[in-house]
């Protein structure tokens, strides 16, 4: 039957679909004779991220917004601020009456001296976390990729990404609780115009529980801003977390809160609509996320070799084979195709303070290729990425 | 009522920010209403681009040019209250793909349309779950597209069209109190945009269609009379609801120019003689539909360009694939 | 240091189950495994030659939230890599792991689940062993917190964790590979290296620590390595189960 022998050559796109693992492996480990460099199927070097661009402030009905594109993955983030009056908080009057004086002192201290800005705010964490002042949600039901049914409740992936964003917002303490407080200073009733210093002393007396007459003079928190941070992944081509986090970060940097004050007569919070009076959020640091995938040359064969070598043995094998054939590649910013081929993932979030790299989150899961040395390299790549993302965010 | 699959805000709920100017009486701020700078038959520019979402079989992104007032407030921001807003939406098409096993046999392509506002799309925060108006829009869009697609070419297959609205049109100017004339006028602009974008995305997915269907909006509006003008109602194309004091009636059509066919028509409001107060033929419902069709013709030219671009990209891809 | 206690197969109707109690973090977990099972109605989604691993985490007192989906993802990543899903009878079937947090400090909406994670992982492992699911290796996991002064605390209580500068969860395979790392909070790489060494010593005892004698001494005080605890739990159970056979011999 030698009529029409099927052609043995396949176009690359077909080969990529039929034998994805072999296709990527062939790109990463070209035959020594071909003199080609080891490169990913998408043309990137292993530690190279996709082209990233960011654009902020283009959505009209948001307090801050950003569109971040990392290659073909696009995340749109909009921040909407709404008011939470303390009267609506069930536990507020019980749990916070005593802390008001501290709040005021905190405020005075902050307004007095700039260097105390960095001072730890004892209520910072508890206010943001306990009152749910930051509400991030990520949606994948936008038709961003086949397989996410629009209209269905958030998939497990979307839920866990939302959780990761929330967790990172809390653990990095990115947003200051002070920025979210709406204060009310009742007009002083007594004729004696007390100096602030004196007022504070007076309050110390109050703290000892002698009297409550001065209650009207204390500044009190009348409301909080609640930031609804919604991320729509408009297009998904791998690595949604990096793009989503960059979008959240860029949108928060863009966020302006109007000047809000307590209207005693109407008992509501009234905001000034003047742009000049609105203020930006003072964020703590600039944590940047970088994700990685580990591609293993023998992943398909791995399940047959039930006996996995010891970590020590493996290290020796690896060192011996260092000059020879590489067996594992750590791929930065994996696209959808590479994500499907790598079981082991890592995500590192770094920030830089005074030139020093601070890791704020480091995860690895799904395999045992990444350990001490490899993780160290991953952190170094992430630190380089931080510079890159910083300049992108500062330009927009 | 907490949603366990999402992160919830404070249990007591939150209130949208109240801005000081909106507390004043309506008359004192009516001067702030943005004015339409375009001619009655002049359309806003449409930005339409296909193929931005590679994982979908077809996709389109559509954006309306901000109206003059919004553009002004963007370039030199004074107030935090946006004067109006401009439609921005992304549309993806997935398919044709086999129907799930559980579905019954269908000799035609089964069309599913899904329109969702982003929570930050409108002046009022939208919920995460589709509300009645979003479902309504989906049904209208499905009707508009069903008449265009050659459905019998794909038996036992499904086509999912998903639209995410990133920024919607306003229903009225923010300074106006809701009144009896009030209707979700902004929704009609949104639908017109959805039809045009979906049409581009379907063409980008290379689904056979009878023609490129485009959406257009026209409305009969009555404004406060400017100096030396009569205050009689006027027919306007592509109205931005924030620019008009009251919209008497509006119409959105999905129109195929080459066949001169309308696949979807949605008329809203009161356009009877009594309410218009004139016997003017140019303000009847036929004139309104004609106006909407004209607006759709305008959108069609943009659509053609976008689809041409998509076809060129596809041709380039094929060529590149063969030579590689 | 009071070590964790565990028992195998407390539930009669599941294929395998385990209960696990860690006194220092106060966590108390009950887990069950059903494998291999037919997963109905999702034949399209199943991998053709591999088992599908599903993990469900149920909270005790706190309302369910998105955090559990995240933890489920982590546990699936860890055990999914160890389960030999291509063994006979497992292809196109499912391994369903259900973990219920029955006691201890409840985790709030925003809290990280990191302090609970080692207990959840150990329960999942023991339940898998109890259900005789083929595994390529076993593993052991621990959580460490680092406070502002750099002091490393093993398995911190909720208060210590709340005050900590960073929290780290590490899991090591029985062959000494780093299988999982989840670190949160500000730290630098040197700190992490120390944490890794300490964690490795907790899981495997001093032999793998190597040169640093100091840390080895501390770990001896920490008591038995976790690896050994898990091994003994399983050995005890096997002894009980095969008592008739051993006695007869």
From TrEMBL, chain A:
Residues 112-122 have a biased composition (Acidic residues). One of its GO terms (molecular function) is mRNA 3'-UTR AU-rich region binding. Pfam families: RNase_PH (PF01138). The keyword Transferase does not apply. The keyword Cytoplasm applies. One of its GO terms (biological process) is exonucleolytic trimming to generate mature 3'-end of 5.8S rRNA from tricistronic rRNA transcript (SSU-rRNA, 5.8S rRNA, LSU-rRNA). Signal peptide: none annotated. InterPro entries: ExoRNase_PH_dom1, ExoRNase_PH_dom2_sf, Exosome_comp_Rrp42_subfam, PNPase/RNase_PH_dom_sf, Ribosomal_Su5_D2-typ_SF. GO terms for cellular component: cytoplasmic exosome (RNase complex); nuclear exosome (RNase complex); nucleolus. Transmembrane segments: none annotated. Residues 48-258 form the Exoribonuclease phosphorolytic domain. It comes from the Eukaryota. It is found in: Cytoplasm; Nucleus, Nucleolus. Keywords: Cytoplasm, Exosome, Nucleus, RNA-binding, rRNA processing. Residues 93-128, 191-215 are annotated as: Disordered. Its main location: cytoplasm. Belongs to the RNase PH family. This is Ribosomal RNA-processing protein 43. It comes from Aspergillus ellipticus CBS 707.79.
UniProtKB/TrEMBL annotation, chain B:
Signal peptide: none annotated. Keywords: Cytoplasm, Exosome, Nucleus, RNA-binding, rRNA processing. One of its GO terms (molecular function) is RNA binding. The keyword RNA-binding applies. It comes from the Eukaryota. SUPFAM superfamilies: Ribosomal protein S5 domain 2-like. It is found in: Cytoplasm; Nucleus. Residues 1-41 are annotated as: Disordered. Residues 42-207 form the Exoribonuclease phosphorolytic domain. One of its GO terms (cellular component) is nucleolus. One of its GO terms (biological process) is nuclear mRNA surveillance. Its main location: cytoplasm. Belongs to the RNase PH family. This is Exoribonuclease family protein. It comes from Aspergillus ellipticus CBS 707.79.
From TrEMBL, chain C:
One of its GO terms (molecular function) is RNA binding. Coiled coil: none annotated. Keywords: Exosome, Nucleus, rRNA processing. It is found in: Nucleus. InterPro entries: ExoRNase_PH_dom2_sf, PNPase/RNase_PH_dom_sf, RNase_PH. The keyword rRNA processing applies. Signal peptide: none annotated. One of its GO terms (biological process) is poly(A)-dependent snoRNA 3'-end processing. Gene3D superfamilies: GHMP Kinase, N-terminal domain (3.30.230.70). Its main location: nucleus. This is Exosome complex subunit Rrp46.
